[in-house]
Specification:
Blueprint (H helix, E strand, L loop, with lengths): L6 H14 L2 H8 E7 L3 E2 L11 H14 L5 E5 L5 E5 L1 H9 L4 E7 L6 H10 L6 H15 L3 H8 L3 H9 L5 H8 L5 H6 L5 H14 L3 H12 L2 H8 L11 H9 L3 E5 L2 E5 L3 H14 L1
Parallel strand pairs: 2-4, 3-5
Antiparallel strand pairs: 1-5, 3-4, 6-7
Helix pairs in contact: 1-2, 3-4, 5-6, 6-8
């Protein structure tokens, strides 16, 4: 099997094979459909999908009881009598929920090291994988199989930009990631929080939920948080006007020496335009001290 092929493609080949009347030959190449005891099937430890809707599982379970399993699960046989699940976690769980002892399965003969990639690619192609699970799946494929974003883009049929933006969500705090995974906030909201400290992320996330902030309103909130503290100090700082009358003699003397002097509000300024000006100022202070 070529590395990176989706299981949907394999299952499609099985269906086409039966339609063309040569199902047996094709199954010998792809795998065999058999009934397997559900207790012999181990969940894939590399399964990136972690959240399962219990109500939807119950609906699927009831449907399987009434209509049977329309699409078999896919497994690989271990060195003992057990099997490891590649695709069909929900279908397997639904069978157990209905107390069904056996489940129709396609047994694939693939190398062990391909198992993780096959499972990840299969799950990435699912519509019900939340965006955080998707991001972790991307990261696993990139890190463990040493592939670039461009190579991953070709394998999972997603744009490189989409993959990169999704991966950036893993830079968010676990608190924000959990809210995003549970659809409490949107990816649009989450992206705005990138770069904020963990406490700031929590503040913004709680504000989004509590105040039902739009993405635009969230952008304004984050902009205010990022505003440099120096600007805030300057806004609140009041200028004091001082009385310079006690310095009138000093001002007059310096001006008489052709020095440009200015005194107002909260500063006293002597403009220097040449080395001669510095000598004049030095002579003044030397004579007055």
């Amino acid at each position: 099997m070529a590395l990176g092929r989706g299981l949907g493609e394999l299952l499609g080949e099985v269906e086409v094979a039966y339609e063309n009347g040569n199902g047996k030959d094709t199954l010998e190449k792809i795998g065999t459909i058999v009934e397997i005891d559900v207790n012999l099937i181990k969940s894939n430890p590399n399964q990136p999908r972690k959240i399962f809707d219990e109500d939807k599982l119950k609906e699927l379970s009831d449907s399987i009881v009434e209509h049977g399993l329309l699409q078999p699960i896919v497994v690989v046989q271990n060195s003992d009598t057990s099997f490891t699940l590649i695709s069909g976690e929900r279908r397997l769980r639904a069978h157990k929920l209905a107390n069904l002892e056996k489940i129709n399965s396609i047994v694939l003969d693939i190398e062990e090291f391909k198992l993780r990639e096959l499972a990840l690619i299969e799950n990435i192609q699912r519509d019900d994988l939340n965006i955080i699970e998707l991001a972790y799946s991307y990261a696993q494929l990139i890190n463990e199989h040493n592939i670039t974003h461009d190579e991953l883009s070709k394998r999972v049929f997603k744009s490189r930009t989409s993959i990169t933006n999704t991966l950036r969500l893993l830079q968010l705090s676990s608190y924000v990631q959990q809210l995003l995974a549970n659809n409490k906030i949107t990816a649009g909201h989450a992206k705005i929080m990138l770069g904020l400290e963990e406490e700031q992320q929590k503040l913004v996330a709680d504000s989004i939920i509590g105040q039902k902030l739009s993405v635009r309103e969230t952008e304004k909130l984050v902009k205010d948080l990022k505003e440099p503290s120096t600007k805030k100090v300057q806004k609140n700082k009041k200028t004091t006007n001082y009385d310079f009358k006690p310095l009138n003699n000093v001002l007059k003397t310096l001006k008489d020496n052709d020095l440009k002097v200015k005194a107002e509000k909260n500063y006293f300024k002597i403009e220097i335009t040449s080395q001669e000006d510095i000598e004049k100022i030095s002579n003044y202070f030397r004579n007055t001290l």
